[in-house]
TrEMBL record, chain A:
The keyword Transport applies. This is Amino acid ABC transporter. It holds the Pfam family BPD_transp_2. GO terms for molecular function: transmembrane transporter activity. InterPro entries: ABC_transp_permease (IPR001851), BCAA_transport_permease (IPR052157). The chain crosses the membrane at residues 6-29, 41-57, 63-83, 95-116, 142-162, 193-215, 268-287. One of its GO terms (cellular component) is plasma membrane.
From TrEMBL, chain B:
GO terms for cellular component: plasma membrane. This is Branched-chain amino acid transport system permease protein LivM. It comes from Acidihalobacter prosperus. The chain crosses the membrane at residues 30-49, 56-76, 82-100, 107-125, 150-169, 200-222, 228-244, 251-271, 277-298. The keyword Lipid biosynthesis does not apply.
C-alpha cells in the first residue's frame, strides 16, 4: 500500500487528461493527413484565456470551457481556409504541413510574447475549493480529478460525435478515403474545416487545465506540449480514433511511475517512449500495417 | 569536366577568401564565426534534407553531441583542440549511427523521431546524475584550450569542407543516386542503387559536419551549458536558412544564411521576438508560395531565358 498505488492512480488521472491534450492533433491528422505542429501553441492560448478570465473577470476556469471551445472553433474555420486547401494541392502535403505549421507555431509564440509578456502565470488550484479528494485510500487534489473528468468527457463527446452523428459519420468517411467521400457527395472541404476547428478547440480546452497538470503558463509552453502530444498519438497510432486514449494512459502511467521512482530521468520519458515505440511498431500500438520508407 | 566543376570551385574560392579576409575589415569576429557556423550547418542539413528529402528536426542533436564530445575529450584526455574537434565530429557520427534505424520511418515520423532523439540526448547530458562526465546542468569550461583565432580558422576549414561535400554530391554520380532516391526510393532501388547504403552515407556525412561545427563552436566560446548547444533555435535557424535559400542547391543555403543571419544581426539581436515572428511568417509564405527557395527564382529565370 502506498507509493505504487498512488503513482498508478495518479497516472490514470494524468492519462485521461493527456488523452484530451493529444486528441485534437490526432483528429486533424486523421482527417486531413496534415500534422499540426502548432498544436501545443493553441493549448497555450487556451491556458492564457482561462488565466485572463479568472484574473480580470474572476470567473472560474469551468466557465472558460464553453467560451474557449466556441472561440477556438470560430478561429479554426478561417485559419483552415487560409492554409490547408493550398497546402493539399501541393506535392507532399504531409511533410510540407509539418514545416508550415511549424512556422505558424513560431508566429503564435512571438505574438504571445508581445501580448502576454514572458512572465510565468498560474491559476491557483484552490479556485475549485480546498477539498482534497479521497480515492481508493489515496488523496488527490480536486483539480487533478476535474482535469481527468473533463479529459474523459472530451474524449467521450468526441467519440459520440464521430460515431453517433451524421456529421461524424461523414468525417469518418473522409478519414477512410477523401476521394471516395467526395464522390458520394460529402462536402469534404466544409467538414474538414469543421474538424480543423474542433481539433484546435480541443487543444485549447485542454489548455484550461494545463496550469494544474502541466505547470506554469508561459508563451513557449507549446513546443514541449506538441512533442508530448505527438508521442501520445504515435504510441496509440496516428489517425486511429481510439489511439489517443490508449496513448494518453500509457504516457500518464509511465510518467507517474518515473516521477515516483526515477524523478531526474522523467523528463526524458516522452522522447524515449516515442522513439522506442516507433522503432518496435512503426504503426503505433493499435496500428495494423507497418509503414516502410 | 572543368566546366562542370567550375561554378562549385568559384563558390568555394569566394567563400574561403571572403571569410579569410573579412576579419581585417570587420572587427566583430564572433559574428563572422557564427555566420560560418550557420553556413556549415545549413550545408550539412542541405545534404540530408535537400539531397535525400529527410528533414532532421533534431539536427541540433549532432551539434550538441560534437560540442560535448570535443569538450569531454579535452577535459579527460587532454588532446590538442584540433584533434578534439575531429573527435567531436566522430561522436556525432556515432550518434548518427545509433539513429540509422529511424530511416525505417518516413516523412514527418522521421522528423519527429529525430527531434525526440535530440531532446533525449539533451536531457541525458543535462541530467545531474551525469555530472562526473558532462558536468550536467552546470556547464563546460575549457580555459586550457581557449584560442579564438585558431578556432576561427578551423571553422572556416569546416565550412569549406561542407561546401565542397555539398558541391561534390550535387554534381557526382553518387549525388544523382541520392536525388533518384529522393524522388522515388523504390524505382531507385530497382535501378540498382543501394538505397540503404547511399542514404546512410549522406546521413552520417551530414551528422559529421554538424558535429565538427558544434565542436569548433564549443572550443571557440569555451564556456557553455547544455541549453547553449542543444537549443532548438539552432535547428530552426538552420532550416529557415536552407528553405529560404533553396534546398538541394550549393549556393542556396549560403545565400539564405548570409541574408537572413545578416538581417538578424542588424535588427534582431535586441528584439528576438520580432525575429521569431518574421521567421514564422517567412516559413509560412515560403511553404505556400515559394517551396524551392530563392535559388528556384534564379533557375526559373534562366530557363525562361533559354526558351
Amino acid at each position: 500500500m502506498g507509493l505504487l498505488e498512488y503513482a498508478l492512480l495518479a497516472g490514470l488521472l494524468y492519462g485521461l487528461y493527456f488523452a484530451l491534450v493529444a486528441a485534437g492533433l490526432n483528429l486533424i491528422f486523421g482527417v486531413m493527413r496534415i500534422i499540426n505542429l502548432a498544436h501545443g501553441d493553441f493549448l497555450m492560448l487556451g491556458a492564457y484565456g482561462a488565466f485572463y478570465l479568472y484574473h480580470l473577470m474572476g470567473w472560474s476556469p469551468l466557465w472558460a470551457v464553453p467560451l474557449t471551445f466556441a472561440a477556438f472553433l470560430a478561429l479554426g474555420l478561417p485559419l483552415y481556409y487560409l492554409l490547408v486547401p493550398r497546402l493539399q494541392r501541393s506535392g507532399d502535403p504531409e511533410m510540407r504541413s509539418f514545416i508550415l505549421f511549424f512556422g505558424l507555431s513560431q508566429i503564435i509564440e512571438a505574438l504571445a510574447v508581445f501580448a502576454f509578456g514572458n512572465d510565468q502565470r498560474s491559476i491557483p488550484a484552490r479556485v475549485f475549493g480546498n477539498h482534497p479528494v479521497h480515492l481508493l485510500g489515496q488523496v488527490y487534489p480536486l483539480a487533478w480529478i476535474l482535469s481527468a473528468v473533463f479529459g474523459l468527457l472530451g474524449i467521450v463527446a468526441l467519440y459520440a460525435y464521430l460515431y453517433g452523428s451524421p456529421l461524424g459519420r461523414a468525417t469518418r468517411a473522409i478519414m477512410a478515403n477523401p476521394d471516395e467521400a467526395a464522390i458520394t457527395g460529402i462536402a469534404v472541404q466544409r467538414i474538414s474545416a469543421l474538424t480543423f476547428g474542433i481539433g484546435i478547440a480541443l487543444a485549447a480546452l485542454a489548455g484550461i487545465f494545463s496550469p494544474f497538470m502541466v505547470g506554469a503558463i508561459q508563451p513557449d509552453l507549446g513546443v514541449g506540449i506538441t512533442l508530448i502530444s505527438f508521442a501520445i498519438v504515435v504510441i496509440g497510432s496516428l489517425g486511429h480514433p481510439l489511439g489517443t486514449l490508449v496513448g494518453g494512459l500509457v504516457y500518464g502511467i509511465s510518467l507517474m511511475l518515473m516521477q515516483t521512482y526515477l524523478p531526474s530521468w522523467s523528463q526524458m520519458l516522452p522522447f524515449v517512449l516515442l522513439i522506442a515505440i516507433l522503432l518496435v511498431r512503426p504503426g503505433g500500438l493499435l496500428g495494423k500495417g507497418v509503414r516502410r520508407a | 569536366m572543368l566546366r562542370r566543376w567550375l561554378p562549385s570551385l568559384a563558390i568555394l574560392a569566394f567563400t574561403g577568401l571572403g571569410f579569410a579576409l573579412a576579419p581585417l575589415a570587420y572587427s566583430n569576429q564572433f559574428l563572422l564565426f557564427n555566420m560560418m557556423m550557420y553556413m556549415a550547418l545549413a550545408q550539412g542539413l542541405n545534404i540530408i534534407y535537400g539531397y535525400t528529402g529527410y528533414l532532421p528536426f533534431g539536427y541540433v542533436g549532432f551539434f550538441g553531441a560534437g560540442a560535448y564530445g570535443a569538450a569531454i575529450i579535452i577535459t579527460f584526455w587532454h588532446w590538442p583542440a584540433l584533434l578534439a574537434v575531429l573527435g567531436g565530429g566522430l561522436v556525432a557520427v556515432i550518434f548518427g549511427l545509433l539513429l540509422t534505424p529511424l530511416f525505417r520511418l518516413s516523412g514527418a515520423y522521421f522528423s519527429i523521431a529525430n527531434l525526440a532523439a535530440a531532446e533525449a540526448l539533451y536531457y541525458l547530458v543535462a541530467n545531474p546524475h551525469m555530472t562526473t562526465l558532462t558536468q550536467g546542468p552546470y556547464g563546460i569550461n575549457l580555459p586550457q584550450a581557449y584560442a579564438p583565432d585558431l578556432a576561427y580558422a578551423t571553422m572556416l576549414a569546416i565550412l569549406l569542407f561542407a561546401v565542397g561535400a555539398a558541391a561534390y554530391l550535387r554534381r557526382s554520380r553518387f549525388g544523382l543516386a541520392l536525388a533518384a532516391i529522393r524522388e522515388d526510393a523504390v524505382s531507385a532501388g530497382m535501378a540498382g542503387i543501394d538505397v540503404v547504403r547511399a542514404r546512410a552515407v549522406a546521413w552520417l556525412l551530414s551528422a559529421f559536419i554538424a558535429g565538427l561545427a558544434g565542436a569548433a563552436y564549443g572550443w571557440y566560446i569555451s564556456v557553455f551549458y547544455p541549453d547553449t548547444v542543444f537549443a532548438l533555435s539552432i535547428t530552426v535557424f538552420t532550416i529557415v536558412f536552407v528553405l529560404f535559400g533553396g534546398q538541394g542547391t550549393v549556393l542556396g543555403p549560403l545565400i539564405g544564411t548570409l541574408l537572413l543571419y545578416g538581417a538578424y544581426n542588424v535588427i534582431g539581436i535586441s528584439n528576438p521576438q520580432y525575429f521569431q515572428l518574421a521567421y514564422g511568417i517567412l516559413i509560412v509564405v515560403l511553404v505556400l508560395f515559394l517551396p524551392a527557395g530563392l535559388a528556384s527564382l534564379l533557375r526559373r529565370r534562366r530557363t525562361a531565358h533559354e526558351r
